[in-house]
Design goal:
By secondary structure, this protein is an alpha+beta fold. It folds into 3 domains: 211 residues, Rossmann fold; 82 residues, Uridine Diphospho-n-acetylenolpyruvylglucosamine Reductase, domain 3, CATH 3.30.465; 108 residues, Phenylalanyl-tRNA Synthetase, Chain B, domain 3 (3-Layer(bba) Sandwich), CATH 3.50.40.10. It has 14 helices and 21 strands. The strands form 5 sheets. A 6-stranded mixed beta sheet has the order 3-2-1-4-6-5. A 5-stranded antiparallel beta sheet has the order 11-15-18-19-20, with no helix packed on it. A 4-stranded antiparallel beta sheet has the order 7-10-9-8. Strand 18 and strand 19 form a beta hairpin. The protein is elongated. The chain starts with 7 loop residues before the first helix and ends in a 10-residue tail after the last strand. 26% of the residues are buried.
């Protein structure tokens, strides 16, 4: 019974074609994650390094004691432990915020080639399917948790226990006399998952003893449907993309049916790791898409997502993306970079491009304060900056966030868009070009 969970071949089979550099166990200290770490450390024959990450949410009085338990366990089992310390924000769903911050903390310790192992099991999968059903989810939600997924940073998230029952894991822990912690908050039926686990599922199990296996099968079938259909939706999404980042062509979206448009929009938001709208919110989004209005204040908001339409383009933004910037910031000539909040400005010397170096002494960065005029390269005379932004098709919420470069109180560059016509570097002259890493429309402008 040493391999009461599964054998080594079954554990490794889903990863047989992957180049793995290191194992990482998400270690809460509960029976599931302790059993997973034990199997990995003491049963699986592997020469790869093993690490664990414990995340302290500070939600329970025992949180520090649980962290100490995990540290002692990893010391005894000779496993390197990393600890993520997170503080949940006020407001919003505690469960959703905790999950988001937990994964952010875990992934901060991982690199390409790592395999993150979480101890989600068959009963967890069944609970997830039920929750998604009660929320009115479609196939994507009903697919619940995948067995494995590879991130854009080439980290694999693998759930090896997904076909293993909770009872089997507990039997494994008892067999090997594994110590673990008990989180009493799992008994709090205020949380939806706990309500199902404590009150609903016992009734289901009495009538349908194999309910968990059956629901897991439904999740797998939904996942297969998603896998089959996704290339089609990706093709439609690609056709609807505009040149700008985080932007879709609204005119092309209106050629789709509401069902198709919803599917494409959800796929687009998922690509950006943005929260998905509820069905009611999606109806508001569809209204925004199909009305094709020119009112740039038209928007739909949920969680930390703002969808805005402008000039027949649809933008996905965070609330921070629409907050105006202000202030004046000195940029000495001998400093290559300038940091302003989450914005990084950078200068680079290039022959024949940008502003003539002779005109670029110590600079000052400002932001729009209404009434500015600018003589842009390629234009005759100066024009109101507002008019230039309109010609450049810059959405109104971006205009007050674009850095304006001043030298001796004269506007010499709208970073990412244009340089002053009278101060350009000649073809044989050393020039200075400027970049802003937080602006989507960065260009090299002559």
């Amino acid at each position: 019974m040493a391999n009461v969970l599964f054998n080594n071949e079954a554990f490794l089979a889903p990863l047989k074609d992957k180049a793995i550099h290191r194992w990482c166990v998400a270690l809460s200290g509960g029976v599931d994650s302790v059993a997973l770490l034990h199997f990995l450390r003491h049963t699986l024959k592997t020469s790869l390094p093993i690490i664990a990450v414990h995340v302290n949410h500070h939600l329970q009085p025992q949180a520090d004691a649980w962290q100490a338990f995990c540290a002692d366990l990893c010391r005894r089992w000779d496993v390197t432990l990393y600890v993520g310390d997170v503080q949940l924000p006020k407001g919003g769903s505690i469960e959703a915020n905790a999950r988001r911050l937990r994964y952010e903390a875990i992934f901060s310790h991982l690199t390409a080639g790592d395999v993150l192992l979480t101890a989600h099991h068959e009963d967890d999968q069944a609970e997830t399917v039920l929750l998604q059903l009660l929320r009115g989810a479609g196939p994507k939600g009903l697919a619940a948790m995948p067995l494995q997924v590879e991130t854009k940073t080439e980290i694999i998230h693998y759930r090896p226990f997904l076909t293993v029952t909770r009872a089997t894991i507990e039997a494994y822990a008892e067999l090997h006399q594994l110590e673990h912690i008990n989180d009493l908050s799992n008994d709090d039926i205020h949380y939806d998952r706990n309500y199902l686990r404590q009150l609903v599922i016992p009734v289901l199990r009495q009538r349908w003893p194999s309910y968990a296996r059956t629901l897991a099968r439904s999740a797998n079938l939904s996942a297969q449907l998603i896998q089959w259909a996704e290339p089609l939706w990706q093709e439609i999404l690609a056709d609807c993309r505009a040149e700008q980042k985080n932007c879709l062509d609204q005119t092309k979206l209106t050629t789709l049916s509401p069902y198709e448009c919803s599917a494409v929009l959800r796929l687009w938001l998922e690509e950006q790791s943005l929260a998905l709208p509820t069905e009611a919110q999606m109806q508001q989004v569809l209204h925004l898409v199909y009305q094709q209005g020119h009112d740039h204040h038209t928007q739909v908001k949920w969680h930390n997502v703002v969808l805005r339409a402008y000039h027949n383009h649809l933008y996905a933004l965070s609330p921070l993306d629409i907050v105006p910037r202000s202030g004046e910031f000195q940029w000495p000539q001998d400093e290559e970079r300038l940091h302003i909040d989450d914005m990084v400005l950078r200068r680079e010397t290039v022959l024949g491009l940008g502003l003539a170096a002779a005109h670029v002494t110590d600079c000052e960065v400002r932001f729009r304060n209404q009434g500015e005029r600018f003589h842009a390269a390629g234009r005759v005379g100066s024009h109101p900056l507002k008019k230039l932004f309109q010609e450049w098709d810059v959405p109104p919420w971006q205009r007050s966030r674009i850095p304006l470069l001043y030298v001796q109180d004269e506007l010499v560059a709208v970073v990412g868009y244009a340089y002053h016509a009278g101060k350009l570097a000649a073809a044989d002259e050393i020039g200075v070009v400027f970049y802003c890493e937080s602006i989507d429309t960065i260009k090299n402008i002559r």
